[in-house]
Specification:
Length: 151
């Protein structure tokens, strides 16, 4: 029985005392516009993304989240654009966000209406910077400046 409790304690520690890993995506369309989503919970615009499921690679998580939140397909392998781990970056939990730049194709349509109100493609000059959800302003500004941040 002691080995069972040791495994249970380790599992609980992993589940409740370690940050959760997620992907945040910067989807770029062929015409250069970037895609943002409007979150249902706050009404704010932000970058699409979500948690990496157990047994899932980062690329698979990026493909799944992109499709669910924007209706778009991943056109090429994602490119690392940064890693963000500030415990305050997400008001719901301590999560580590792996920022991936992705080339996307297809037609915009929200498939996950429980989380997303709408998805929209913005020219770079019209991005609604200044009040994006979570730390997405920082992530997007770093990306646009050509910085790959780890913090």
């Amino acid at each position: 029985m002691s080995q069972f409790w040791r495994y249970t304690r380790t599992l609980l520690k992993v589940a409740f005392r370690h940050p959760i890993t997620g992907v945040t995506l910067i989807p770029r369309l062929e015409d250069g516009r970037l895609v943002l989503i409007q979150r249902r919970d706050t009404g704010q615009w932000g970058l699409p993304g979500g948690l990496v499921d157990w047994g899932e690679t980062l690329t698979a998580a990026a493909r799944r989240e992109l499709k669910e939140e924007t209706g778009l397909d991943l056109a090429a392998a994602p490119r690392l654009a940064g890693v963000y781990s500030d415990p305050k970056r997400d008001p719901r939990m301590h999560s580590i966000s792996i920022l991936l730049a992705v080339e996307a194709t297809g037609e915009l349509r929200v498939e996950d209406g429980l989380e997303v109100l709408q998805a929209e493609a913005f020219p770079l000059s019209e991005l609604p910077l200044g009040n994006l959800s979570h730390d997405h302003d920082r992530q997007l500004r770093d990306y646009l400046a050509g910085n790959i941040e780890v913090g």
